[in-house]
Design brief:
Length: 435
């Protein structure tokens, strides 16, 4: 056995593709709610992701080889045919969304299987997938989920210079705005121009794909960038108006900006992610211990996010605490949550939520200790922490799991970007790269 390899000499990128497939397909089953098969797939995906991170630490970042990219393209093509439509999609636009998504997936498969192709051809899948996203929004003009009404209402409130906290939203059964303010701020232009915040969420996915494409690595990142747009049930996530695509785009942009040595922009993008959704805070310890970003920039980003969020707290302290903090902490356990918490409930146990923060502190310590200190380690470590939170939490659904799957793909691209201050030096490559 060669030094630095797992017993079977597995390429870490193949492990990442396997983890992405298990997690994303598990989350796509029954639109991200609990089934025995879905929790088995998601849990298995987290186990494989753990092995992948360990292998990256052993052998260092490696660009994806042809076999891993072809496998991912095949899985994306099959998933696009099975999990194309949103939950409430209807009419001719749904057929367009399905057709464009399948066309994008088949084009990615063609790119992965063809050794030589013009670079401009890689734009095709992104165009097809973006068109599918637009058609998906058109096919579901008024989804019944609370999040769409909350995001639409919050955007409308901002357009009229009103506070987004301490309000109830027509159509949302009186639910508060449970996210951080940047989640609403970023989609305001799209609501103002196109009348629907979901175009802004689609733009977040496009931003992530563009950032991945610009990370270096030639053809490898061109294909990986397309996979960002081909997550199983990805159109469902956009339709439901969850803010995870914004977090994914901002974190992917952070990694690209660090690699491009635009550290000021990286600080801004990371601060934006931290002020979009509360769970993004799990990335702060990994950012602080990533030498190319460092604790000073991590602290600056955290401070900037605190200033943004703090302005809303100062404007209405009680309303902000009730909406963005208390509401989330006091959510009741759900029997349809895709988590081990739910599995324990269904098995007759009564787990206590107080154990979750304690276990997550241990996970953070483990992630900081064991994750590679490079771009790939930052992204994959963040994906692992978010995945562990999903497994342990009392409410985890498609949106939370989709962010984990998206970050795994960004992690594959980060392997192409490289990092001069990485703590591992690659051995001889496990397989030729197509980059």
């Amino acid at each position: 056995m060669q030094r630095g390899r797992l017993p079977l000499g597995v390429d870490p990128n193949l492990l990442l593709v396997a983890a992405w497939s298990l997690i994303s397909v598990g989350a796509a089953r029954l639109f991200g709610t609990y089934t025995p098969g879905a929790i088995v797939l998601a849990t298995a995906g987290m186990v494989v992701l753990t092995l992948a991170i360990a292998q990256v630490r052993r052998v260092g970042p490696r660009p994806p080889g042809r076999s891993s990219l072809m496998l991912a393209a095949v899985i994306a093509t099959v998933a696009a045919q099975v999990y194309a439509a949103g939950q409430h999609s209807r009419g001719p636009a749904e057929a367009w969304a399905h057709g464009l998504l399948v066309a994008a997936a088949f084009t990615v498969l063609l790119l992965a299987c063809t050794p030589d192709w013009p670079r401009w051809l890689a734009v095709g899948p992104l165009v097809f997938a973006t068109g599918a996203g637009i058609a998906g929004i058109v096919s579901s003009p008024r989804p019944s989920i609370d999040d769409w009404h909350m995001m639409q209402g919050a955007s409308q409130a901002l357009l009229h210079f009103q506070n987004i906290y301490g309000r109830s939203w027509p159509g949302s059964v009186g639910h508060q705005f449970p996210y951080l303010p940047v989640a609403a701020i970023l989609v305001v232009p799209f609501h103002a121009i196109a009348g629907d915040v979901r175009y802004g969420l689609l733009a977040g996915l496009v931003l992530a794909a563009v950032a991945v494409r610009r990370m270096g690595g030639g053809r490898a990142t061109a294909i990986v960038a397309c996979l960002i747009m081909l997550l199983p049930r990805g159109l469902h996530g956009i339709e439901q108006s969850w803010p995870e695509p914004l977090v994914l785009g901002l974190l992917a942009g952070t990694v690209w900006a660090v690699g491009a040595r635009r550290t000021g922009l990286a600080v801004v993008l990371f601060a934006g992610a931290l002020a979009t959704k509360q769970t993004a805070l799990l990335a702060v310890p990994l950012a602080a211990t990533w030498p190319s970003f460092g604790w000073r920039r991590a602290l600056t980003s955290l401070s900037a996010a605190t200033v943004i969020v703090g302005a809303w707290f100062i404007a209405a302290p009680r309303a902000f605490v009730e909406d963005a903090i208390s509401y989330n902490l006091h959510l009741p356990p759900r029997s349809d949550s895709l988590s081990l918490f739910t599995s324990a409930m269904r098995a007759g146990f009564k787990p206590s939520f107080t154990a979750v923060p304690v276990l997550m502190i241990g996970c953070v310590v483990l992630a900081v200790w064991k994750s590679p200190r490079n771009a790939a380690g930052f992204v994959l470590g963040t994906a692992w922490l978010l995945g562990m939170l999903n497994l342990l939490n009392k409410q985890s659904f498609f949106n939370e799991w989709s962010l984990v799957g998206g970050l795994v793909i960004v992690g594959m691209a980060a392997m192409c970007q490289g990092d001069r201050q990485a703590d591992a030096v690659p051995d001889s490559p496990a397989e030729p790269s197509i980059a």
